[in-house]
Amino acid sequence: MSPTSIEPDSISITDHSHIPQLHHLPDEIEHRDPRRAYHYIGKLLEQDLPGKKDVEQYFRHQYIRDCRPNTIKSTYGVLVPFLTFLKEEGKDGMKEVNRDDVEAFIEHEQDRGLRITTVKTSLAILKAFFRFLMERGVVGEEVFPWKMRIKLPDALPRAMEPEDVELLMSVDSNTRDRAMILLLLRTGMRIGELLSTTLRDVNLREQKILIFEAEKNRFGRVVYFSDDAKEALEAWLVIRGAMPGLLFLGYKGKPLSYPAARTVFIKYLKRAGLSHKGYTLHCLRHTYATDLLNALMPIECLERLLGHKSLEVTRRYARLSDKTREEEYFKAMAIIERRQSREHHQLDRELQTILEKTQLLSSYSEELHEHS
To answer: Is 226 exposed, middle or buried (0-12, 13-18, 19+ CB in 10 A)?
Structure first.
């Protein structure tokens, strides 16, 4: 098959029916492999922690529910520190935990200087875990932190300035890196989605990529790419070849990892003189959304392209790039400035008239004084 005539094929479904019950898996196993759940169970059981049997059951529950490997990884990253905290507090198991312990752990996480979004995620994971324990009668409802909330600032998405995009794309880059950056910029894909894209997911003729399962919310969708992205992709495919597998490959044909992709992006930011701006790979997705809204794409259409669950999430970009609001503001401000200019001019004329009358009176007074 020619590398420029790629068509989507039938979806391959991997059989995971022979997963071992409890074994370490080598670190080389791809992080998208569901068997990673058992890798974390093995790591958990090696440690001397209170309540680890309950956490083990929760991991198995997550696996049965077909949770994403990254979800299980995040759960491990919260529950193991939580169990460590309980051990330091002298707790022997989950039955001894109370709501104060949960709140103290969250406060402990905040005191560590973690980002507020990270602490909020930790609380959400703990709530899901305690809901699981409640359903099995391990803990009572009085333990569950029902009213505990962490409010996040409603921050705007960070998009790149148009002139910065031009600078970035003008940098001399290799064929693979240019194709990767352009596809992120023109499709709005998350970096994890692009790194998971296989050759069979790409339809060059129709200029689209099939995302069978989105990285974040597991929604399938179709994204499209522009002519310049197609040209860059074709150039990369000539080098890559048409062998099956992931679209973007790294050193010696291995999968391109997120840290490697991030390093590539930072390198080109430095070459473009943009390293001080704090742009990230995810800013390319924000830039994509902002550009489309500025081009008057309906927000409902953009919601589908971005794969958002809620239109409210997409509306954040509307706040960032509402051209109608911007135009109305400057139109109204022009009226205000003209009005103030007229009023100022009128005031100047009135003051000039008063000044002239004052000068005439002064002159007349001097004449009277001379003749007296």
So the answer is: middle
User: Considering the domain boundaries, does residue 151 fall inside one?
Assistant: no
Structure tokens at 229: 């992205």
Distance CA 293, CA 303 (A): 11
Cβ neighbors of 53 (< 8 A, separation 6 or more) are none
Please tell me the predicted confidence (pLDDT) of residue 356. Answer: 63
Contact (Cβ atoms closer than 8 angstroms) between residue 22 and residue 42: yes
Convert 335-346 to b/e letters by CB count within 10 Å (16 or more is b). eeeeeeeeeeee
Report pLDDT for 201: 95
Range of the domain at 246: 162-321
Three-state SS across 132-153? HHHHCCCCCHHHCCCCCCCCCC
Whether residue 339 sits in one domain with residue 316: no
Strand order in the sheet with 221-224: 202-203, 208-211, 221-224
Let me know if residue 128 belongs to a domain: yes
183-204 pLDDT per residue, tens? 999 999 999 999 999 999 999 9
How far, in Å, CA of 78 to CA of 121, rounded?
Answer: 9
